[in-house]
Design brief:
Largest sheet: 9 strands, mixed
Strand content: 15-25%
Oligomer: single chain
Order of helices and strands: EHEHEHEEHEEEEEEHHHH
């Protein structure tokens, strides 16, 4: 059996530690693999070329990641109708790969994309409860018809209602660069998230996905987050919800640390929104 007829797109910036793990899962399995390198200053591009994949270098910051994703979908010489989006700090469990093979072979004309679950690995442990598992992400889709919404953080691929399916396998999200980098990324993410919420509050929706209580899974999640952002004492509420109600206490020491960091992110978003408002 030859490689599955799917194109894998891996976006990377200074990912020499994580990237080899991601590529081991897809090189030889997928018929085409691109690493879109955002002008890394480490060995990311070198390692990708050594693995035998096509490397495309295009400068990009986290602020412009959505633009970079859509640029890749529109510009790269993609050979296959189906694409799979894999971050450099992710790997695929074997059952998920088997499901993707079956879905692509089936090529159901009623489906343009598939949601799948992922597991968050933090400090070497699966954070099953505090991460709000199961969390779903749309990663396998027909590239001619799907693009990402222009949102600065947590942007979703936009799919026509009723055109999605669901896979039961898992991605493993595990950043191996350590705690210091995780904290650095918190600062970057909270800046983007604060800007995204200010855009909503000030009516700058543009082509953003609108939150709806009785909409799709993504619209309902967006609706809940847009209301959560208005609550007072949000950092404390986030910690209590994840650690107590979602039983993050059962995730051990790593679960406690994870919940604390989630609360800190909410605090950072709040302060940055207040600062921007003057």
């Amino acid at each position: 059996m030859g490689p599955v007829p799917v194109t894998v797109l891996v976006h990377a910036l200074n990912e020499e530690i994580n990237l080899p793990h991601a590529l081991r899962d897809v090189v030889g399995w997928a018929a085409q693999v691109f690493v879109i390198d955002s002008a890394s200053c480490d060995k990311t591009a070198e390692l990708a070329r050594a693995a035998g994949v096509t490397v495309v270098s295009r400068p990009c910051t986290r602020t412009r990641l959505v633009e970079q994703r859509n640029w890749a979908l529109e510009t790269l010489p993609i050979d296959h109708e189906w694409v799979f989006i894999l971050d450099a700090d992710e790997t695929m469990e074997p059952p998920l790969k088997e499901e993707i093979v079956a879905a692509v072979a089936r090529n159901d004309p009623a489906k343009d994309g598939y949601w799948l679950r992922f597991k968050t690995i933090f400090m070497g442990k699966w954070i099953r409860r505090a991460s709000m598992y199961p969390t779903w992400s749309l990663r396998l889709f027909r590239h001619p018809v799907v693009r990402y919404e222009p949102r600065s953080a947590n942007a979703h691929p936009q799919l026509a209602p009723g055109r999605e399916g669901f896979l039961q396998g898992h991605l493993l999200h595990q950043d191996r660069k350590g705690f210091e980098y995780y904290v650095q990324r918190m600062n970057e993410f909270s800046t983007l998230e604060a800007q995204a919420y200010r855009d909503v509050q000030e009516g700058r929706h543009g082509d953003l996905l609108r939150g709806r209580l009785f909409g799709t899974k993504t619209e309902r999640r967006r609706w809940l987050k847009e209301r959560f952002i208005r609550l007072p004492f949000r950092p404390a509420l986030a910690f209590c919800y994840l650690y107590v109600i979602r039983l993050g206490v059962l995730d051990g020491r790593a679960g406690f640390d994870y919940c604390v960091l989630k609360a800190v992110i909410e605090w950072m978003v709040t302060v940055k929104m207040r600062e921007a408002a003057g």
